[in-house]
Design brief:
heterodimer, A: 905 residues, alpha+beta, 4 domains, eight-stranded mixed beta sheet, six-stranded mixed barrel, 30 helices, 23 strands, 14% strand, globular, B: 114 residues, Arc Repressor Mutant, subunit A, three-stranded antiparallel beta sheet
Chain lengths: 905, 114
């Protein structure tokens, strides 16, 4: 422990330094005086005595210096010294400092912005008690690679009541409400949750109380609701008296019992439900099917569980698997002998999977992981290129600072001391860059979040927390070391004599110097090429997606949403309103067709409904459910989808007539093969005894429904006039000209029908499709931007190297020209070494891209990640830019006038 | 090779200072220098200035402490004195020094005899 005491004493010394200096002064003063008096006593004159005393004492300043060295902590003192010196040097060349700091701010800022998103999406845990104990339960069907998260209510009950490895098992399912309070209706997102939801997650009420297991005992028994903090603030202005009041959810009066705390968003980062109600209230909001809570076939809720602290995931998984199997067997036994042996086997071969649940249901993570990692790699590479470039810049600067280095070497600084000084300077630059980069990071992060689809951007928070700031600090220091190391090592190899001789010495010690700079060019080229290739691939993929055959005509379609149900319209009034609006819009000038639909194309969501089809016997667990939409007559004309057989709906297909459906080609092929589907019957009622009550009257061409990337899907349409309940729908208007110009006319018609009815989410089909490509556009945009930045940086570095080499070899070039060398020879000579580094860099860049191409494959649409055209285009572009960057300074070499050159020096 | 003016090794100087303070009680820097000069009879000539970093070092190790007082000529002076830890250190170093000199004497004596 002695070293600790010494260190403590020294540290104290560091801070009491001025005081101690004065004390030492007076101590030495006394000593000298006593010594002088002694000399006087021995017979010297005063002057002689003073001189003798000094001689005996030795150097006073030297003593003080040694004393001070003993006093403080040399490392800290040197650091302070280096920092002061570095600041002085940076102040002396503000232009250089500004360029470096800004470049670094962009590089580090971009990395920090992406990291903050990665942190929020990939690293952050749920804001609940001990999130590391949570698991997500997933379901894997027999012979399937794919796991989903859906379970039936009976399965949830089995896991909740019989499990010994969990402290609690919760279930939830998303729902949306028409929430009415004091006569005002609006759309609100909601969640049906099990009664133990808040208890198991460990969430405390902000106001009132939260749901408890007692609220969730019997179907429909407790019509209560808990508000999220955000919704309580936005909708009720934080009204404390809301607890105990009733709000209307759809048509059901529900009592607000409490508010959950701020920051709690539930179990899915991408969703922030406003209102939570007990799962036992499910049938009020989802009346169909009526046996939802008993049916083992309906998988509609998701399950999370809290492990007991001493139970590993593997152990919990094994126990849950057993429980799941038992529950399936009981359910099958309950169905009796009607279950075929084959189906029974298949059902029992399904199993459960337990995943880490500390981040909850990670739909956002799954959707964003690959793009985020890709974006992070891109910005990291750009930062590396930036480092290589700054290293080159610093090398050039170190050449100018040779005299300074020479002086330092001459007065006794060792190589270690010089490296430290230079690294201090570059790390300081890195930190300044990082600090400035915070601003850029915040700006870029906000921009990126806005770029995301609205469903994510509204709920995603990416705070600059300790982890992000830690990353920023580490990135700054690391960057500083990275770009400062090469110049620092370079300078530390200088010898006093060479340095004193200045320029002349460069030719002697220059070869290594030169090759270091070429190595940096090599590095920049090798790093830039993958970015350019990536940009090319993304551009290609985006173009493919934009050119994909959607099956409909996307141009000139105006879209708008309408939700009369929120204003208290009954379905009958809605039907009349929709029909009236359609006939008015159809008579507007410039309108070719108009229609309503429950699901508009490429809007990201679509309903699926189970069907029973005449003459088709599905296997026990076969998922036959097609997409479904409710549409009005004129839908296919509005979207330009061709009718292949049969007819479109007409106004005569109403509630009093035979129920009719229109199917698409995939539906026809899947269920009927080559047989004629017209006149065949289907039903959406899954009770096998119910009659097949809908007749197929038409077949339309396949089109894209949810996303541009989807494979052909089975799909059927039902008639709006025959639907028992109508809610919000999307109006689609095909126009002859720019669809946006029709907006005001349509709005006027709606206003005319009901001035209180808002037309919302107005857009065009083309814009809606573009919005579905946000992550593709974002990746393309970022990789193109950064690819160009990296290439420019690399070519600037390359120009610098050649210019430097030309300046160094002016005399040699002069001699060569005088001896008859041609301009072309000179050009070749100057550029050859650099050309070698560029070619080597490109070769390595190509190889690296090829090797890592698998990482990109999943993000590309109909272009292979090894697409030779993209590789070739990027290489040619980079080579051309490099050649230009080399040519400009090399031309100066070719124009060297031998007479001037030989007079040099 | 022997320098007429004996070079003082760092460890030796520490030992001398500790021994001086042990023998004489609290002294200021000048006093220590005087005492060293007397005892060594000018054989050991050290630059008196080198005492001060040594004193600081010993103080940092906790072997001596210092207190301000008045010198003979009534000037402010720092008086150094041995601590308990210093006394123990002196003992330990004296022992090891004696072992070392004994060893050296035997070695060198043997060399002369051969």
């Amino acid at each position: 422990m002695e070293w600790l005491r010494i260190f403590g004493a020294r540290l104290r010394g560091l801070f009491r330094k001025r005081n101690l200096d004065r004390e030492l002064d007076s101590e030495l003063q006394t000593h000298l005086e006593l010594l002088t008096q002694e000399k006087i006593r021995s017979g010297m004159s005063v002057v002689e005595a003073r001189y003798a005393a000094r001689r005996d004492f030795g150097g006073v300043e030297q003593t003080k210096e040694n004393y001070r060295r003993q006093l403080g902590v040399p490392f800290l003192e040197t650091l302070a010294q280096d920092l002061r010196y570095a600041l002085r040097m940076l102040r002396k060349s503000p232009g250089f400092t500004a360029v470096v700091v800004l470049t670094l701010a962009l590089g580090i800022g971009a990395n920090t912005a992406i990291f903050s998103l990665m942190n929020a999406v990939l690293l952050q845990s749920l804001p609940v008690r001990n999130p590391q104990e949570l698991v997500v339960v997933r379901y894997v069907a027999a012979q399937s690679e794919h796991a989903d998260e859906d379970f039936s209510y009976p399965m949830y009950q089995a896991l909740r009541d019989k499990s010994s490895v969990f402290d609690g098992v919760i279930a939830r399912s998303g729902v949306s409400f028409n929430a009415t309070y004091q006569g005002q209706s609006e759309h609100a997102s909601g969640e049906l949750v099990s009664g133990n939801y808040y208890d198991v997650l460990g969430v405390r009420p902000w106001l009132g109380r939260l749901l408890s297991p007692e609220d969730d005992q019997a179907p429909g028994a407790r019509p209560v609701a808990v508000l999220s903090y955000g919704y309580w603030q936005a909708r009720f202005a934080g009204d404390l008296s809301i607890v105990g009041k009733q709000i209307l959810l759809d048509a059901h009066p529900m009592t607000v019992i409490g508010v959950s705390p701020p920051g709690f968003f539930g179990t899915d980062l991408a969703r922030d439900p406003a209102i939570r109600v007990p799962m036992m209230m499910t049938l009020a909001f989802r009346p169909i099917p009526a046996n939802r809570m008993q049916s083992a076939r309906h998988r509609w809720l998701t399950i999370m569980a809290r492990r007991k602290p001493d139970v590993s995931i593997a152990k919990a998984q094994a126990a849950t698997e057993v429980l799941h199997h038992q529950a399936l067997e009981e359910q099958l036994n309950g169905l009796g002998p009607s279950v075929k042996a084959h189906d029974r086997e298949r059902v029992l071969a399904s199993h459960v999977l337990l995943n880490e649940g500390n981040q909850g249901f990670a739909h956002l993570r799954d959707a964003m992981q690959q793009p985020l990692v890709m974006m992070f790699s891109v910005t990291a590479i750009v930062l590396l290129v930036t480092c290589a470039n700054l290293a080159n810049l610093l090398l050039a600067r170190s050449a100018k600072r040779r005299k300074e280095v020479a002086v330092r070497l001459a007065i006794g600084a060792g190589p270690g001391r010089l490296i430290r000084q230079w690294l201090t300077e570059s790390i300081l630059l890195g930190l300044l860059g990082g600090a400035t980069g915070i601003l850029f990071a915040v700006w870029l992060k906000t921009g990126l979040i806005h770029f995301l689809p609205a469903e994510f951007s509204n709920t995603l928070r990416a705070p600059l927390d300790a982890r992000v700031l830690g990353f920023l600090a580490i990135a700054s220091v690391f960057t500083g070391i990275l770009f400062g190391l090469a110049p620092a090592l370079q300078i530390s190899r200088s010898s006093v004599t060479a340095a004193m001789h200045g320029e002349a010495s460069l030719a002697v010690s220059g070869e290594r110097f030169f090759s270091l700079r070429n190595a940096l060019v090599f590095l920049q080229v090798a790093l830039s090429l993958p970015l350019l290739i990536g940009a090319g691939l993304f551009l290609h993929s985006l173009r493919n997606l934009r050119g994909v055959d959607t099956g409909f005509v996307k141009e000139n379609v105006f879209l708008a949403n309408l939700n009369p149900a929120l204003n208290g319209y009954s379905t009958e009034r809605i039907r009349i309103l929709y029909a009236g609006l359609l006939s008015r819009v159809r008579s507007l000038p410039g309108v070719r067709a108009a229609s309503f639909t429950t699901s508009s194309a490429i809007s990201g969501g679509w309903d699926q409904e189970g069907v029973r089809v005449e003459g088709y016997q599905p296997r026990q667990d076969e998922d036959t459910s097609p997409n479904a939409a409710v549409i009005s007559p004129g839908y296919f004309a509005s979207l330009g989808i061709p009718l292949i057989a049969g007819r479109d709906f007409t106004d005569q297909d109403n509630a009093g007539r035979q129920k009719v459906v229109i199917i698409n080609q995939s539906f026809a092929r899947y269920f009927f093969g080559d047989a004629d589907p017209l006149g065949k019957r289907i039903s959406t009622d899954d009770d096998p005894k119910a009659p097949l009550n809908m007749a197929i009257i038409g077949v339309v061409r396949d089109s894209k429904y949810v996303s541009l990337r989807e494979k052909p899907r089975r799909h059927f349409y039902t008639a709006m006039a025959q639907e028992p309940h109508l809610f919000d729908m999307t109006l689609q208007v095909r126009t002859t000209d720019d669809p946006r110009s029709i907006g005001d006319l349509v709005r006027a018609q709606v206003h005319d029908l009901d001035p209180n009815l808002p037309l919302y989410a107005t857009t065009t089909l083309e814009i809606q499709i573009d919005d579905s490509l946000t992550s593709e556009r974002l990746l393309t945009w970022l990789s193109t931007l950064f690819g160009i930045v990296a290439t420019l940086l690399a070519s600037i570095g390359l120009s610098g190297v050649i210019a430097f080499s030309v300046a160094r070899r002016t005399r040699e070039i002069g001699i060569r020209v005088a001896l008859g060398a041609q301009r072309a020879d000179i050009l070749r000579m100057v550029a050859s070494q650099t050309a070698l580094s560029v070619s080597a860099g490109m070769a390595v860049g190509l190889a690296a891209t090829y090797a890592s191409s698998r990482l990109m494959a999943g993000m590309l649409y109909e272009v292979r990640s090894t697409d030779p055209r993209s590789y070739a285009a990027a290489s040619v572009l980079l080579a051309a830019v490099a050649a230009l960057a080399a040519y400009l300074p090399a031309r100066r070499a070719a124009q060297v006038d031998p007479v001037t050159a030989l007079r040099y020096e | 090779m022997a320098s007429p003016r004996g070079e003082v090794l760092q460890g030796t100087l520490d030992l001398i200072v500790l021994q001086t303070l042990h023998a004489m009680g609290p002294l200021h820097g000048y006093g220590i220098a005087q005492r060293v000069k007397q005892v060594s009879e000018d054989l050991l000539k050290l630059n008196q200035g080198t005492l001060y970093p040594a004193l600081l070092r010993l103080e940092q190790r906790g072997w001596i402490t210092s207190k301000w007082g008045a010198s003979e000529n009534n000037r402010k002076a720092k008086f150094y004195s041995l601590t308990r830890a210093g006394r123990k250190q002196l003992l330990a170093e004296t022992e090891s020094w004696e072992r070392m000199t004994a060893l050296m004497a035997r070695l060198l004596g043997g060399a002369e005899g051969a």
